[in-house]
Amino acid sequence: MYQKRFRTEGDVAVVTGGGRGIGLCSAEALAESGARVVIVERDETVGRAGLEALLAAGHQAELIVGDVTSSARMTEIADELAARGKAASILINNAGIGRGGVPSQDVGDAEWLETMDVNVNGVFWCSRAFGRHMIAAGRGSIVNLGSMSGTIANRPQPQTPYNVSKAAVHHMTRSMAAEWAPHGVRVNAVAPTYIETLMVTANPENAKRMEAWLHDTPMGRMGQAFEVASAVLFLASEASSLMTGAIVPVDAGYTCW
Ligand code: NDP
Q1: Distance of CA 160 to CAs 32, 100, 208, 216, Å?
Q2: ipTM beyond cut 0.90
Q3: Which of 41, 157, 167, 187 meets the CB 3.0–4.6 Å disulfide criterion with 47?
Q4: Does residue 15 contact residue 40 with C-beta atoms inside 8 Å?
Q5: Helices (DSSP H) in 104-224: which residue ranges?
Q6: Which sequence ranges form a coiled-coil region, renumbered to this chain (predicted)?
Q7: Protein residue whose Cα sits closest to atom 11 of ligand 1
Q8: How far does the centroid of ligand 1 lie from the alpha carbon of residue 94, in Å?
Q9: What is the CATH architecture of 2-250?
Q10: Residue nearest atom 2 of ligand 1, based on CA coordinates
Q11: How many whole angstroms separate alpha carbon 159 and alpha carbon 164?
């Protein structure tokens, strides 16, 4: 009985930013558990690489190109899937950006606005567009990628725009969870620590900060994308059927103290 509760056969799972990193691992976890996966990526090349990895492993998957900052495009994708009889029953709001390293007094307007556009507006546009179909169907599960930075003002680098955007994601999770529970739609979030993906490794400054950060991490290590994906699968599936509005730390104990 318990293993069956992690199965997602019959579900259509949309994963934004599913072409690489945590999104791709989440897509793999959901596909492995039986879901048909739809990757939504703004960059076709990135999306195609992820899609090919899923298809090569024998999974059911497709790629739709779209930028989560476009409310109209997200509505179009949600409606088109529903019109094909493949309305999403699972949505993983994974697409996100984060640079960091700039003190608040030096953050430019463009960095602030772009971070909010992708990390906050994008999550809202997708949740609203796909959520409408879940409400109509009377069931659905949304998992948002929050961050430990949405819970604490994380050290060792300044990153106010990112922290604020992820705090907004955490509160959006609770707000929608409370509203949509009577409609059979659950909304939860994971709040990871530093995970070894391009988002972190592409910035050489992060390597310099890592020693201080590891010192403050009870488990003494950063995480891997598959370790976040396991939590995403748990929250997306019926295994977490009594959970909604939860912000689940996947952070090696970082927020324990
Ligand atoms: P990556 O940068 O490796 O992957 C993010 C993916 O999202 C990329 O494929 C990217 O595509 C895509 N994306 C970005 N913006 C958009 C957009 N506007 N529309 C559609 N797709 C978009 O990041 P991670 O896998 O590390 O992060 C995934 C999520 O997890 C993010 O929300 C992040 O904030 C969160 N997270 C990550 C942590 C980490 O340490 N890595 C820690 C805590 C949370 P493109 O190539 O076009 O940019």
Answers
A1: 36, 8, 19, 20
A2: yes
A3: 41
A4: yes
A5: 109-116, 122-137, 160-180, 198-201, 204-215
A6: none
A7: 17
A8: 6
A9: 3-Layer(aba) Sandwich (3.40)
A10: 199
A11: 9
